[in-house]
Design goal:
It is a single chain. Strand 5 (173-177) and strand 6 form a beta hairpin. Helix content is 46%, strand content 8%. 8% of the residues are buried. The longest helix is centred in the first third of the chain and has 26 residues, at 2-27. The chain is mainly alpha-helical. The strands form two sheets. It has a three-stranded antiparallel sheet. Strands 4-6-5 form a three-stranded antiparallel sheet. Recruits TFIIH to the initiation complex and stimulates the RNA polymerase II C-terminal domain kinase and DNA-dependent ATPase activities of TFIIH. Both TFIIH and TFIIE are required for promoter clearance by RNA polymerase. This is TFIIE beta domain-containing protein. Keywords: DNA-binding, Nucleus, Transcription, Transcription regulation. Residues 248-262 have a biased composition (Basic residues). GO terms for molecular function: DNA binding; TFIIH-class transcription factor complex binding.
C-alpha cells in the first residue's frame, strides 16, 4: 500500500510540473532571430550602379545605333582589324554596340564589304593578300618582279611593316618610291640572279658626255621615244613674255675682313688669323 501511495504522489507532482511549464511557455514572447554580421560578405558586396552612369552608357549605345550605316561599318571593321578575330553578330554587339542583327542595312553592307569575310556565322577581317608571317611575305613579293605596292600589304598582319624593314635591311627586297604616286613599292632582290657589271661597261657609261643645254637633252629623249618631264623651250618663251631674264643671278661678293673692319669679337683671336 505504501508503494502505491508513493507512486500516486509522484504522478501528481509530474502533472503539476507539466502544468507550470505550459503556463510559462504561453506567457513568454518569442525571441527574434538575429543574423550574425560577416565582415567578409560586407566587403565583397558589389557597389550599386549609379543611375547617372547607366544613363550615359545607354545614351552612348543609342548614339552608335542611330549613326549612319557607314559609321557603324567603320566601327566594326576597326574592331576586326585590331583584334584579327572572328566575331558573331552577338559578339560584335557586345564589343562595340553595333547591333548587326537588328539593322539589315548594316548586316548587308558588312557581309558584302571587301575588307570583311563572312562564313555564314562569323565576321572576320580580310586583307588583300593572305600572308601571315615574314617568310610568306617574301614569297609573295618575289612573285611580283615589277613590284608590289606597300599600301596593299599594310593590313596583311599586325607586324608586316616591321618585317618589310627587316627584309630590306637583310637585302632580300628593295623599297623604292614611285615617281608618280610617291608611294613605296617593294621589289624582290632575288639572290639566285646576281647581276655583275663589267668595269669596261662602267667606264663607258661614265664617259658619255651629256649635252650642256637642257633643250638638247629633251630632244635626245624624244628621239629615243621618251617623254621629257620638263619643257625648257616653253618655259623660256614664257619668261621672255613676262620680261624675266634667263641669266643666272650673280652671287654677292663676300666681304673679307681687313684692318679697317671694326672688330667686336676681339676676345676670340683665332677668328682673325687670316686678317690681311
Amino acid at each position: 500500500m505504501a508503494l502505491k501511495e508513493s507512486l500516486d504522489k509522484f504522478k501528481k507532482q509530474q502533472e503539476m510540473c507539466q502544468t507550470t511549464l505550459s503556463s510559462i511557455k504561453a506567457n513568454s514572447k518569442p525571441t527574434p532571430r538575429v543574423t550574425p554580421y560577416n565582415p567578409v560578405n560586407a566587403k565583397s558586396a558589389a557597389p550599386a550602379v549609379k543611375f547617372s552612369s547607366d544613363t550615359e552608357r545607354l545614351q552612348h549605345i543609342n548614339n552608335i545605333r542611330k549613326a549612319p550605316v557607314g559609321a557603324q561599318i567603320k566601327r566594326v571593321i576597326n574592331l576586326l582589324l585590331e583584334t584579327r578575330q572572328a566575331f558573331t553578330a552577338e559578339q560584335i554587339n557586345e564589343a562595340c554596340y553595333v547591333d548587326v542583327n537588328a539593322n539589315k542595312a548594316v548586316f548587308d553592307s558588312l557581309r558584302n564589304n571587301l575588307k570583311v569575310y563572312y562564313d555564314g556565322k562569323r565576321f572576320s577581317y580580310k586583307s588583300k593578300y593572305d600572308v601571315k608571317d615574314k617568310s610568306q611575305l617574301l614569297k609573295l613579293i618575289r612573285k611580283f618582279a615589277e613590284g608590289i605596292a606597300v599600301i596593299d600589304l599594310k593590313d596583311a598582319y599586325p607586324s608586316v611593316m616591321d618585317d618589310l624593314q627587316a627584309l630590306k635591311v637583310a637585302g632580300e627586297i628593295w623599297l623604292l618610291s614611285n615617281f608618280d604616286s610617291q608611294e613605296d613599292i617593294a621589289y624582290p632582290n632575288d639572290p639566285r640572279v646576281p647581276i655583275r657589271v663589267d668595269d669596261d661597261l662602267k667606264l663607258l657609261f661614265r664617259g658619255i658626255e651629256l649635252p650642256r643645254d637642257m633643250i638638247d637633252i629633251e630632244k635626245d629623249l624624244q628621239k629615243n621615244g621618251m617623254k621629257p618631264a620638263t619643257n625648257t623651250a616653253k618655259r623660256r618663251a614664257q619668261a621672255q613674255v613676262h620680261g624675266i631674264s634667263n641669266k643666272p643671278k650673280q652671287k654677292k661678293k663676300k666681304h673679307e675682313i681687313s684692318k679697317r673692319t671694326k672688330l667686336t669679337n676681339s676676345h676670340l683671336p683665332e677668328l682673325f688669323k687670316n686678317l690681311s
